[in-house]
Design a protein that fits this description.
Blueprint: H1 29-43, E1 60-65, H2 71-82, E2 86-91, H3 103-112, E3 117-122, H4 127-134, E4 138-144, H5 150-153
Length: 155
């Protein structure tokens, strides 16, 4: 018997032309609508007795937060878990940045660990763009100084 729509993960309607989520200025209106529609479909998961779907099962997600954050960090952590991703989290104080490690060094370590998705919050404008050039991981900008915070803008 086929799984009912309410218990299945939302279907992907269309592929986005973006590998990373760095800045919304490069998205078309249709792509933004697609992102918001997909998010709305996933929101229905919260109304179920089991608030988890296998969408990201087998995917590793690393949250690298080099600035303080409450809502953004918790939101990403909960979302990744509800999508069945394997998650790890790193803060500035718990990283080798305190010993002088550069963002490029961090990127190399992420690459060596075969992380699929990196959620990056950093005080330097452009840091997510830099990380996207230095690693094969998908990069999601969770705020880069005063430059951009695309996921917050989607709210």
């Amino acid at each position: 018997m086929a799984e009912s729509r309410s218990s299945a993960a939302p279907d992907r309607k269309a592929e986005l032309r973006h590998e990373h989520l760095l800045d919304l200025s490069t998205y078309t209106a249709d792509e933004l609508r697609h992102l918001l529609d997909t998010a709305q479909e996933f929101r229905a998961v919260l109304d179920r007795p089991i608030r988890q779907v296998p969408t990201l099962q087998g995917t590793s997600v690393a949250s690298l937060f080099f600035e303080p954050s409450t809502r953004t960090k918790l939101s990403f952590s909960l979302a990744a878990g509800r999508l069945s991703a394997e998650t790890v989290s790193l803060s500035k104080s718990g990283s080798s940045v305190t010993k002088g490690e550069t963002l490029k060094d961090t990127a190399r370590n992420v690459e060596a660990m075969k992380v699929d998705v990196v959620i990056l919050r950093h005080s330097s404008p452009g840091a997510p763009h830099f990380l996207a050039r230095c690693t094969d991981s998908v990069i999601i900008n969770a705020g880069d100084g005063a430059h951009a915070h695309p996921t917050q803008a989607l709210l």
